[in-house]
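ingest -> validate -> predict -> emit
validate: passed (alphabet ok, no gaps, 168 aa)
predict: started
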Amino acid sequence: MDEKDIQVLAAIAKLGTGSPEKLSEETDIPKSTVHYRLDNLREEGVITNDLFDVDLTKVGLNITVITEVMAEYSKGYHDKVGEKLGEVEGVNQVYFTMGDTDFVVISHLSNRGMVENLIQQFEAIDEIARTSSKFVIKTIKDENRPLNDFEMETLVETLGIDQEKVTQ
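emit:
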């Protein structure tokens, strides 16, 4: 990857589209070059979808639940329990963490009945010792495109882009 790839990825994050025309306008990179780089980024697995994001509140999934999960330790439990957690309906994200909490699980649900069902499904997983769930009252920031959280210079510097290659 080089600076142009990062510019394309940052523009995708900002605009919410993979349209070569719009990305070209945003980055001042020729449309044909954008197209070529998008193809390469897809082939390399950097771009994994077409970024069709959905406003969850508009479709009725307006309750966000954050659950801390404590599990019983055994060899490979993080994969086994993590997979089971990920299969629970309504679970969107599962993170294996360090510290007192083994997993953090993010779920988007539409009503209290779904929350109750979610907790029952967690309790049905044998390896889970305890859970602690919290309702989100207000979302302050929900950036699903983390590249938007950085300045371009930071991305280029942090990702180790060789500036000499960029200018060649």
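Strands lie at 63-71, 91-96, 103-109, 128-135.
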